[in-house]
Amino acid sequence: MKRRLLKYLVCPACYEGLDLMTLAASASNEIVDGSHHCARCRRTYPIARGVPRCLIDEATVPPAIQRTRRSYTFAWARFGEREIREGWEKDSAQYLSLIPKALFGGPGGVVIDAGGGGGRDLLRVAETGVEIIGVDLSGGVESAHRATAQLPNVHVVQADVHRLPSRRGTFDAGYSLGVLHHLPGPRRGFEALAAVLKPGAPLITYLYADFSDRTFGERAVLRAIRAVRVVTSRLPAPVLLGLCWLAVPAVWTLFSGPAHFLRRWQPRLAARLPFRHTLRWSVLASDLFDRFAPPMEWRYSRQTVVETYHGAGFERIETRQYRGWANGAFTRQDAAPGAAIGTRPDPAARRRH
């Protein structure tokens, strides 16, 4: 943990400032082990392996969230560093490409990544010069910290998005890509992020689509997948990952390979195929695990995306269909002019207004 992070952290239970106790520091003066103490509510939060662990009471975490956390801890331990090292073609890179970099504020701006996972997105956004704090509940913080420890403008915190350890109005921008739809109550996650953003700050999200504007056949496939998830989300993570690897050859043969071949000759058809973004088997196995492991999954239409943002106090809401919904909005209606997300649509998108 870099010492400058302390000015952004508060107790997630009472939002009082924290006192720091250092037990071990690295040669670069990063705090490796220690703790934060809240004088007001007398809670102590450990710093372990360079990451502050700002979790209030793990014993009260609902079982579904515990299962989600275990699944992603398992996944990031196996794929997090490999994704960065090999430059995997992951969806979040496409979503980030839709965001005008000026929205992050450039040098001097402070950004929150809610659900930073293994750290790949932190590295991408750090290139804009902002100071960025990645928050994740899972053990993905271990991979994220190792990947970003040498970057002076990146911080990693283990915390719950519902109880963020930051004061109100701290951040100039925020994003959460593929995370909020796995919460038991996504609206609470939106509200928690709205609270820590400055007035007029943007929040960029990616949310699953409910296929309400798709064909009957596509909606039937989605219903079947959701039925299968009832079983797969309860399997031990190693078993599920093994099944995902067994499914990879079929997924590659039916979807990824044909999409790659058709992209040049029939781009509109290729754009409708799932798993079209990669030919790597390891990426496909990781994506399948992400699809079938989390016990909770919420899906959205364009209207429900707008309603969710509005309900959390956001204005000037924009959505783009890009393998789901890529969205942006501002915490106040009188925010400075500027689009929250780019205008490049998914070629497969079918819009209904």
- The tally of structural domains comes to 2
Helical element count? Answer: 10
Task: Specify the overall morphology.
Answer: globular
CATH architecture label name of the largest domain: 3-Layer(aba) Sandwich
Distance between the termini: 47 Å
What value does the average pLDDT take? 88
Give the C-alpha Rg: 20 Å
Relevant CATH superfamily of the largest domain: Vaccinia Virus protein VP39
| Strand residues, percent | 15-25%
Overall structural class, as computed from helix and strand content, comes to alpha/beta
Helix content: 25-40%
- Can you identify the CATH class of the largest domain? Alpha Beta
Number of strands: 11
Low-confidence stretches: 335-339, 342-353
The helix-strand sequence is EEEEHHEHEHEEHEHHHHHEE
Give the biggest sheet: 11 strands, mixed
By CATH, the topology of the largest domain is Rossmann fold
Task: Describe what you observe in this structure.
Helix 7 crosses helix 9 (281-292). The chain folds into 2 domains: 3-209 and 299-330, Vaccinia Virus protein VP39 (Rossmann fold, 3-Layer(aba) Sandwich), CATH 3.40.50.150; 234-292, no CATH class. The protein has an 11-stranded mixed β-sheet, with helices on both faces. A hairpin with a 6-residue loop joins strand 2 and strand 3. The chain has 353 residues and is of the alpha/beta class. Residues 335-339 and 342-353 have low confidence and may be disordered. Helices cover 37% and strands 18% of the residues.
